[in-house]
Specification:
The complex is a heterodimer. Chain A is an all-alpha fold. Helix content of chain A is 74%, strand content 0%. Chain A has 17 helices and no strands. By secondary structure, chain B is of the alpha/beta class. Chain B contains 13 helices and 12 strands. In chain B, the strands form 3 sheets. Chain B has a 5-stranded parallel sheet. In chain B, helix 1 links the parallel strand 1 and strand 2. Classes of the chains: A mainly alpha, B alpha/beta.
């Protein structure tokens, strides 16, 4: 393995990037920053309420509030719709959005690459393979389906467990490599190639499956927050919250990584341990989210950029909470739009996140040239 | 063109197929039941998806090496197909870029497209056997068989014509927080003919044909008397596993869940999509027996079966 003795010029910023924020006039920065945080907390709350009040079944806002505060609704089915369908969906959106956004942020920092996202390590592809093994091979009594059915798991529970197992296996492979591979770029390339290999296995399974099964799998790949029930949340919420809190604990080492690995090492950071912590946290957050919601695209790559542009900073102390809040906000907005307010149709979540989000991010990045400061070049 | 006739010269661009064909290839198993009924299975030399088919006469010929696998959808095995030198290749088109027929035409194959799958009328879908018959030389047989089927179908429709109570029906299964009721184009018509109301496509409204939000499905499901064509479910447990929140809908509480997978074969295919498409009157009789048991006393379900299991409170 080649270990560069000098920092890689192409990727390391010549000056510590997060000082850019410090260099701003403190007064205006503080005021703008203050308002920003108010918005970052207020807007997700607003969208959360909007998400509860809109849906394909038209239920008036006062009815929604009455149901939320334990009152009687005009119709019994409305109570079920709000409490069993909309509320878990909105909570899932917030958690999944925050988790994916932080996963993306950590991957971009670890690899010092603006195109990195939660899926670069092939962990989400592993989750996909797990689901494919169960869903696609079920009709022909395939190994995956028999194994999961043997555990007494069918339907959605089977999908969640198989996705978790798939993600976990790829994670184990990546971690064992991460301990041996010196250069982080090598790890990135291995992760991406690993994803290709796993996806190839999925397409072979699709090739040999029958139409209804393929449709069920494709439907899973579109991503959705709506299938998560309260029982699922009992597992999903604690894992994601733990992961989110874990990220806050490594904010200083993450800042160190931005300076380049050699530099960070000279500051006394234990790079390989840090790498393993970052990868594990990412896998926990994005793997769990993928298991429950399917592979939700775009949020993990784009939201960290949104955070840097809005904060005009790459300092993880502020970037981590801001990105988490923005992730929740973006996920709620995407869920709202996917329901096509005023109609009973629904769009695939991934279509909404990518179609509407990408132009916004491109515009933001073109306006502010924060990208170069963070990632060098 | 009938065999032995001169090809007219005034259509130089036209594709010429000499009929009756001697070497027949189809990419879809839906042609099999009629080939079987007409006794012309020996014309078939190539078929897509041989692994999952239900029609036994075709399975025997596949096992004997008389019918060759030619692949399906995007995975048509061009070389195997060319090697068979078929007189026609029957394919269905979806209009997408993945349709195999442009490539087949480029290779000089005599391709014939069928669009039976977009027929809204169950009988209309069956009537495509007349088109198939033109190529295998069994026009009279097809006419007679269709008249027979249509006669039986219409006799059943007359039984439900005077019904005043029309139970609401939903179809499909919730997948990943969404519900896509757009299964088969002919299903709403079949349900209406059986004296039911397809709740996702009310009379005169066509705007419902799109993937729906799961809460919209729940809302409809609360008013449905029966729930049919429930994906791959085998029992009530499968329904709860797909989404436990539907446990309290009336169709589940009253055990009115019926799936069209009674004739699933050991190889993962479902005869519903083969013989069921040739004999829509049998599908109709199943649905009438489900929705109005009093009209067909003693009818035993053919393609459908009731999903059994314990309900949940």
């Amino acid at each position: 393995m080649i270990r560069p003795q000098i920092p890689d010029r192409a990727y390391s910023a010549p000056t510590p990037s997060f000082k850019g924020a410090v260099a701003m006039p403190p007064a205006s920065g503080c005021v703008a920053g203050g308002w920003l945080w108010v918005l970052l907390i207020f807007l997700p709350l607003l969208l959360f309420m909007l998400d509860l009040m809109t849906g394909s079944v038209s239920i008036g806002p006062e009815q929604v509030l009455r149901i939320l505060f334990g009152g009687e609704a005009e119709r019994a089915s409305w109570e079920k719709i709000i409490l069993l369908f909309r509320l878990p969906k909105a909570i899932t959106a917030v958690l999944a959005g925050a988790g994916l956004a932080l996963s993306g942020l950590m991957m971009q920092t670890l690899f010092r690459n603006p195109l990195a996202g939660p899926s670069v390590l092939g962990i989400n592809a592993g989750a996909g393979l797990g689901v494919a093994l169960v869903v696609l091979s079920a009709s022909s009594g395939g190994i995956g389906a028999r194994f999961i059915a043997g555990l007494g798991l069918t339907g959605k529970a089977g999908m969640v467990v198989s996705a978790g197992l798939g993600a976990g296996l790829v994670l184990a492979a990546i971690l064992s490599l991460a301990r041996r591979v010196g250069n982080v770029m090598t790890l990135l390339i291995i992760g991406i190639l690993c994803g290709f290999a796993v996806n190839a296995a999925v397409s072979v399974l699709i090739h040999f499956s029958v139409a209804e099964r393929i449709q069920a799998y494709v439907s899973w790949t579109f991503g959705s927050f709506g299938s998560v029930t309260w029982d699922d949340l009992m597992l999903f919420a604690p894992i994601v919250v733990l992961g989110l809190l874990g990220c806050q604990l490594i904010r200083k080492p993450l800042n160190g990584l931005l300076l380049g690995e050699e530099y960070a090492r000279s500051m006394g950071l234990r790079i390989r341990t840090l790498r393993i912590v970052v990868i594990t946290l990412t896998a926990l957050l994005s793997g769990t989210t993928t298991a429950f919601c399917g592979p939700v695209a775009f949020i993990g790559i784009a939201v960290p950029h949104l955070g840097r542009v809005l904060l005009n900073s790459s300092d993880h102390k502020r970037l981590l909470p801001a990105t988490a809040l923005l992730g929740g906000l973006t996920a709620l907005a995407a869920d709202l739009l996917a329901q096509l307010p005023g109609s009973d149709a629904v769009l695939p979540l991934n279509a909404v996140t990518a179609l509407i989000g990408s132009p916004v991010i491109v515009w933001l990045i073109l306006r502010k040239r924060n990208l170069q400061r963070t990632f060098g070049g | 063109m009938p065999r032995g006739h001169e090809v007219p010269e005034n259509h130089p661009e036209a594709q010429v197929v000499t009929v009756p064909v001697e070497r027949f290839v189809t990419l879809s198993s839906s042609q099999l039941p009629y080939l079987d009924a007409a006794g012309k299975m020996d014309l078939l030399v190539g078929l897509g998806g041989t692994e999952h088919i239900s029609t036994m006469s075709a399975r025997r010929l596949v096992a004997a090496g008389k019918i060759h696998e030619v692949g399906i959808f995007t995975n048509v095995r061009m070389e195997a197909l060319l090697d068979l030198s078929p007189d026609i290749v029957m394919a269905s088109a979806s209009g997408s870029a993945y349709d195999p027929h442009p490539k087949l035409l480029e290779a000089g194959m005599p391709v014939v497209l069928t669009l039976a799958h977009i027929e809204k009328s169950p009988l209309g879908r069956c009537e495509w056997i007349k088109f198939l018959a033109m190529f295998i030389g069994t026009e009279e047989h097809a006419e007679a068989l269709f008249e027979e089927i249509a006669g039986r179908y219409e006799a059943l429709v007359r039984k439900t014509a005077g019904i005043s109570h029309r139970p609401g029906v939903i179809t499909g299964a919730p997948i990943q927080g969404k519900w896509d009721p757009r299964g088969s184009k002919y299903l709403p018509g079949l349900i209406r003919d059986a004296g039911g109301r397809p709740l996702w496509e009310p009379e005169g409204v066509s705007g419902y044909r799109k993937p729906m939000d799961i809460e919209a499905m729940y809302n409809l499901a609360m008013t449905a008397d029966a729930w049919i064509n429930t994906s791959t479910w085998e029992n009530l447990e499968d329904a709860f596993a797909a989404d436990p929140r539907f446990a309290d809908v009336p169709a589940i509480q009253n055990r009115r869940l019926y799936n069209n997978n009674a004739k699933t074969n050991p190889w993962g295919g479902n005869d519903y999509w083969e013989s069921g498409m040739l004999y829509p009157e049998q599908l109709l009789s199943d649905l009438i027996a489900i929705l109005h048991p009093g009209l067909l006393p003693g009818h035993e379900l053919i393609y459908y079966r009731r999903l059994e299991g314990e309900t949940r409170p």
